[in-house]
Amino acid sequence: MSPAAPIQSLSVPTHSESTTSPPHTVYTIRITTPAQTYSLPTRYSALLSLHQSLQALPGASHHPLPPFPQKRSSFFSLTSHLSPEETLARRLALETYLRTILSSRDNFYSTSKPFIDFLAPPASLTPSKPALSSTTWLDLHTKLQTQARNLTSSFSKRDSLLSSPATSAQAHTINASAKKELVEFLTQLEDLRAGLKELENGGMVQGECARRWEMVRALEEKGEVLGVMSGRRVVVKQSPKDEQDARTPAKDALLGAAKPAGRALGAAAKGKETATTRALDNQGLLQLQQQYMDDQDGKLEELTAAIRRQRGLGEMIGEELEVQKETMDQLEHGIDRTTKNLKNAQVMARRLG
Question: Is 238 helix (H, G, I), strand (E, B) or coil?
Fold first, then answer.
């Protein structure tokens, strides 16, 4: 029997103390498959039951299991509650236990029903976006590189067509299509970043992670360049005849010349003809207005993406600070505990002497 979706990565990244009675520790198992990523909260007793179920499988005596972290027994312990450093050590040991079974060439246990049922996603879990494997991540990166080259070509073609009044409408059409593709490019770039973070958390080699982060940064630079290109304002070249421009009443009304716009303060404002609008008819003016609106939308999307990146960096820094604080607290607690145990040992040694 094999799982419906093969597990790509498994980790036990966090644990927490339950507030219910009796108090206990909850370990979070994080699992990534080609279809989704999900978390399973579990207790030590549940994992111990899994271990005992695997030991009871027919033929298990011919397939050694990895060491399972035993219950704590200490000569100096006056309580059954684990200290923070002991809880951390147990979490890491449980993660090693599960990973060893999952990565073993002998798939006797990893394909067994108890193991598969234990790590199966909850029935109420809604499907999420498929996680990127190492191969699909590279495929998406190659796709984005090609998309960036196509976008550069589209914006260059737009600029070329805008140089002639006769092809300005076609230029606006190309510009609108390219901006939609740019939004898709930036969205998939965020997926690429998130996918690499998942692969990094899943145990990808540090050197390979560093190389791929450089690849992501290169695409981010291309995205910034494309954002500048998408908002570039190109002045349409005019011929001497076009400079005279036979204006129509409808166009004057659209520009605001036929009916001045009222203002609450100051003089009335009138629409002004420019070198860009002079050669355009009514349809061309509407398309130009739409282009300016699209430019504003694109800049807002770029600003949103930049803020999202800054937020991500802030969260990463915050997580790192929390880890460092937890480590320092555990170290301080461990020192206090060791000092106390040493004093107790000295007292006992004096009594025995």
Answer: coil
What is this structure's pTM?
A: 0.38
Q: How many helices (H) and strands (E) does the chain have?
A: 9, 3
pLDDT tens digit string along 252-296? 555 554 444 444 445 555 556 665 666 566 777 777 788 778 778
For 32-50, the pLDDT digits (tens) are 887 788 899 999 999 999 9
pLDDT of residue 162: 78
Rounded Cα–Cα distance for residues 227 and 294 (Å):
12
Helix, strand or coil for residue 109? coil
Per-residue buried b or exposed e for 177-199, using 16+ beta carbons within 10 Å of the residue's own CB: ebbebbeebbebbeebbebbebb
Q: Which of 33, 222, 221 is nearest to 146 (CA)?
A: 222
Both tokens of 284, joined, read 């061309």
Q: Between 134-162 and 206-230, two packed helices, what is the crossing angle to 10 degrees?
A: 20
Residue 173 and residue 182: Cα distance in Å, rounded? 14
- Would you say 299 and 231 are in contact if contact means Cβ atoms under 8 Å apart? yes
Mean local confidence (pLDDT), 194-220: 89
